[in-house]
Amino acid sequence: MVDEPSRTPVTAADVEHAVRLSVTALRAGLAADWSAPAGTLEWDCWETVEHLSDDLFAYAVQIGPAQPPLDGEVPYLWEARRPGGPRNAVHADRAAGPAGLLQTLEASGALLTAMVRTASPEVRAYHGFGVSDPEGFGAMGIVETLLHTHDVAEGLGLAWTPPAGLCDRVLARLFRDVPEDPDRWRVLLWATGRADLAGRTRPDKWRWYGEPLSSGAATP
């Protein structure tokens, strides 16, 4: 269990940093086959980045209205382009190629960064895992970014290891009772069912906890 007074909050700068790292890493695979499966997902690499861009967009708009919804999502139309594909409101133009796809990721990340930075810490909005605050939505966006970049990097044959401090801050914000193992990236992969951890059974089901924590959020 996280000791709340000693926790370092997740900030808008963390969201910006995570997306920048992701885009930089994935640019190394522009010439690769983006139709390859993304890690263990049922989606290909293109679809997974499109889904990630959509995640960041969705978290940004959820805290955007003057009175954010507490019982459902802002009603954009989310739809899949094929059976089994991700249900997105954001769809990248295939004619723009992988470079254009990464532009949509960068732009959606900038939207979430701006909303986490400017929204009042008192804002609350609906999420399926619990009503959350701007810090929580920022942390969710980072987790989506780190994990789906991992999935796509596996599919494209790229290296990807995000900073331990970034992993530690989102673990402290969204996950409960995670091990104190010093490899915080490995712990995040384990907590989301993507990796084994010595002495621990890999979870077959997982979730995060986005509910606001007592100390509030920091948004520099």
TrEMBL record:
This is Mycothiol-dependent maleylpyruvate isomerase metal-binding domain-containing protein. The lineage of its organism: Bacteria, Bacillati, Actinomycetota, Actinomycetes, Kitasatosporales.
